Structure to design on (341 residues):
């Protein structure tokens, strides 16, 4: 019965350990394998909302090098470089500031291409006042939702329902490309609505393409705590701490009830006389005690002349009053002198 209970305990322990490993895998490993910890249109995501398929597809093309950017953008050097900034919120561009536009213009001032692709979102219930943005005043283009209203300075690369969905314009030695609906750049878009011709127009003559992950907040940092907070690993750390706490608790304490405390003083046992008395009491009856003692005495004193008197006293009063017979025998033994037979 005890072996069967022990086997069930082992089975339960193995099940709990398996569930713990599975839970840790779901919390820590799986989100990194699918890239779900990263924002939509990140080139690190492999699910439908990511753009890793585009990243790897461009990397397989000859004479094209692809990398990711985890630091602030630097000025592009020459026409062979291109930076893809995907998954930009169009609502934030309604209130874009001059500083951001200055950054973009400086980025392509020496050549290269800056490709900015916006999230495919629905228009808000209330229209946004374009005067809140410096985009139309400086770049002469109005950003709607999934389309543009560009000035003649912009070259239209793609249209949908007579609306411009992808445009480009020269700034200094380089070009800025805007894409209103970036669905076709996602993993799902490449599978369901692939538009290789438009993708080729976005890349242009570039041979070195960089996918900007910095604007998603995915940056290189030496702080482990910041990385844990960024990728939401607090739950995993909490689980590990809980497991460690349970292990230490199990090692430091026992599930069995505590043993009773031992007495402070040592327990004294019987002495030799008390032990012999207890042995005789358990092995010899009260009526046979005097006869047994007399028989053992005769073995050590076979020639004792007083034995006849002692035996007479045992026969006379031993069965009726052993105590009186014992006293009489003690009186006989106390007499001086012995007779040899």
């Amino acid at each position: 019965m005890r072996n069967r209970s022990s086997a069930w305990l082992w089975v339960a322990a193995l099940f709990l350990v398996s569930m713990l490993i599975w839970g840790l895998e779901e919390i820590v490993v799986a989100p990194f394998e699918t890239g779900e910890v990263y924002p939509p249109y990140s080139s690190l995501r492999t699910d439908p909302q990511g753009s890793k398929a585009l990243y790897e597809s461009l990397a397989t093309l000859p004479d094209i090098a692809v990398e990711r950017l985890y630091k602030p953008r630097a000025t592009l050097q020459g026409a062979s470089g291109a930076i893809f900034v995907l998954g930009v919120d169009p609502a934030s561009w309604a209130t874009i500031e001059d500083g951001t536009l200055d950054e973009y213009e400086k980025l392509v001032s020496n050549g290269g291409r800056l490709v900015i692709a916006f999230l495919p979102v629905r228009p808000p219930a209330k229209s946004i006042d374009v005067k809140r943005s410096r985009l139309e005043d400086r770049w002469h283009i109005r950003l709607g939702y999934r389309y543009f209203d560009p000035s003649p300075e912009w070259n239209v690369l793609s249209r949908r329902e007579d609306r411009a969905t992808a445009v480009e314009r020269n700034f200094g030695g380089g070009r800025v490309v805007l894409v209103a609906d970036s669905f076709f750049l996602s993993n799902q878009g490449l599978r369901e609505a692939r538009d290789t011709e438009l993708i080729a127009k976005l890349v242009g003559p570039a041979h070195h393409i960089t996918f900007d992950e910095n604007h998603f907040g995915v940056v290189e940092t030496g702080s482990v705590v910041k990385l844990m907070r960024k990728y939401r690993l607090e739950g995993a750390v909490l689980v590990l701490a809980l497991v460690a706490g349970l292990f230490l608790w199990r090692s430091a304490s026992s599930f069995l009830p505590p043993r009773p405390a031992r007495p402070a003083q040592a327990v004294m046992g019987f002495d030799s006389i008390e032990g012999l008395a207890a042995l005789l009491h358990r092995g010899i009856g009260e009526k046979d005690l005097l006869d047994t003692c007399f028989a053992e005495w005769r073995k050590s004193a076979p020639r004792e002349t007083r034995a006849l008197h002692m035996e007479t006293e045992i026969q006379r009063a031993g069965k009726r009053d052993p105590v009186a017979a014992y006293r009489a025998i003690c009186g006989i033994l106390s007499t001086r002198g012995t007779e040899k037979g």
Observations:
- Residues 83 and 210 are 5 Å apart (CA to CA).
- The two ends are 72 Å apart (CA to CA).
- Residues 273-334 form one domain.
- Residues 2-34 form the longest helix (33 residues).
